[in-house]
Every structure is written in structure tokens, then in C-alpha cells.
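Instructor's aside before we start: the two examples that follow are unrelated to each other. I chose them only because their records fit on one page, so don't look for a connection. First example below.
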Amino acid sequence: MKSHTRAENNQARLQKKVKDLQEQFIGLLHALSQTIDARDPHTRGHSVKVCQYALAIGVELGFSPHRLERLEIAALLHDIGKIGVEAFILSKPAPLGELEMAAIRLHPLLGVRILESVEQLADIIPVIRHHHERYDARGYPDGLGGDQIPLEARILTVADSFDAMSSNRPYRKALSPQEALQELREEAGTQFDPQIVEAFCAAFAKGKIMVGTQEVV
């Protein structure tokens, strides 16, 4: 009986250590994402908001806790490739030129290059690579379309775009949340997966998406 109790206690301690390590890892990723975003004064906090929106979509789609955790990691790291983009391009207070846009479009591939040696993130790599693909196959870097694009990448596309539309930029004012939602609906089936747009709008209607706050789920 005592040995059984001891085994249970050891198992409980091990589970707590694993949980503590997971929480520390997520905390480090939050810090890293904030460091990435800080390189661009116009998108500070972007990765955290994208993460929150993505998780709200994942919950709406019925993702398991493990899948939500992997989605969280992918969302926090989705722009890590911008570390390799010149700072003057990221902080330019005007629309980007053609060559500057070409440099920006390299960031998914740069992100893959940065993360590909981390075996524990192997399942995250396709999400990082394809979060700028479009449902109609007119995105980058590979021109994938529809279900060819990983589901988590399609989620990030919607979350990323909503934050971009509902945030101020030097060359344009933010859309209202309602206007941004309407843009998502209008682009469903072209830029965005209609299923993901529907899930995002449902989460918004339920109060799980709160623009300008970190409490969305």
C-alpha cells in the first residue's frame, strides 16, 4: 500500500515538473515574440494578439488541449523570420515598394530556416511556412490552396489578417472590428478558408474575441 502511494506521489511530482517546464517554455516564447514585434514599432504586441485570436478559433473548432498548445506555439513564432528582415523595412512609415515587399515575403522561409533544427518543433514548421498562403492559391511562398494548406496555417492567416486590419498603421487608420469582420466575410473563399472565417465570427459573437485586450478565450 505504501509503495503504491509512493508511486502515485512520484507520478504527481513528475507531472508537476512537466507542467512547470511547459509553462516556462510558453513564457519564453511570449518573451521572444515580444522581442520580434518590438523591431517594428507599428506592430508591437501583434504576435500575442494573433495567438489569442487563433486560440479562440481553435476552441471554436473543438481542438484538443494538446493541439491548442501547438497552435499557441505556432502563433507566437509565426513571424520569427522577420528577425532576418532589415529593420528599416519593418519600420518604414509608408507602404512598401516592390523590392521591400519581396524581402518581407521571405520571412516565412527565414522562419523555417531558424526553426528547422529544433526537432521538438517539427510539426510547427509547415504552419510557419504556409501562414501567408491564400485559400485561392495566390499566396506565398508555395502557392498552395484550399486543404493543401495546413489547417493551423489557415487559422493563422485569418487571425493575422484580422489584427492587421483592426490595428493602426502610419499610412492608414484601423478598421473597426465590425468592418474587419466584414472584410473577412467578403474574402472567405478567396483569401480565407470559409470554415475558419465562420469559426472566427462565431467566437466573436460569443464574446471570445475582444479587440484591444488580452482576454479573448
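Example two begins here.
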Amino acid sequence: MTTRREFLVLAAASLAAPTAAKAQLDPNLAAKRKAAYEEALGKVVGGARVRAGRVKLQLPPLIDNGNSVPLSVAVESPMTAADHVKAIHVLTQRNPLPDVVSVHLGSRAGRAGISTRVRLADTQTVVAIAELSDGTFWSDSAEVVVTLSACLEEGLI
């Protein structure tokens, strides 16, 4: 015969077990995020070489809350019809979705730059890639320390 107290303990444990299983992190999380980043990078640049330079990525090196991180990207370009920035892409290496923002520009944009706020899941490297009209890709990256994460994995509660 089960007592009332034992029944309540068993009922509470049976309800908590599925919840606890969902809250566990995937042991392959780092590998999955790296693969997602590589896939997003491949969609942006294909097989082209990405060179360092011409792009200036600015964001705070230490941020208390990853929910709203100020970010700006400026690209050295004359923005003429023959030589202009076609797109600016921002990727992160540890967000659940690595492609944060892509902005498409034309020669009539006036200047090649964006300013926005992004969400960051964790301490990580943020990469800005500029696609120029001549088909070249230029980049800059910055390390950001996030003390309170903003993005959660879909399986977490």
C-alpha cells in the first residue's frame, strides 16, 4: 500500500523527469554551432577567399546583457557605380543562428556602413564580412565577453 506522501513524491518526480531531460545541454553543442557557422559562412562567400582589412567592426569588448548589443560596421569604399559595397554580413560563432544580419547596398547608398543592435548568446567572436562589387570579400572580427546570455537553445526551458 502506497502512502499519500509517497504518492505525491512519485508524482512530482515523474513530472520533473521530462523537464530535467530537456534542460540538459547537448554534448555536441559546440560542434553543431561550429558547423552552423561554417554553413552560414559558405552561404555568404561560397568558396571565395575572405581577406582581412577594409572593414571596421565596432562593438563593446564587455557587455553585461547580450539582449541588446550595439554594433556598427564601416567599410572603406568610394561607393561609385564601378566600385561599391554590395552587402555587409554579420555572423557569430556561438549563437544558435549564426547569421545575425545581412544588409544589401548599392552605389547610391552614399556610404558603406550600418549601425544596429544584436543579440549575443555567449562570449564569442563576431565577424563582419563586406561583399564588394568586384566580387572580393573583406572582413573584420571582434571578441565580445557577454556576462548574461540572450539566446537560449530551443530545447532549454
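The mean pLDDT is 87.
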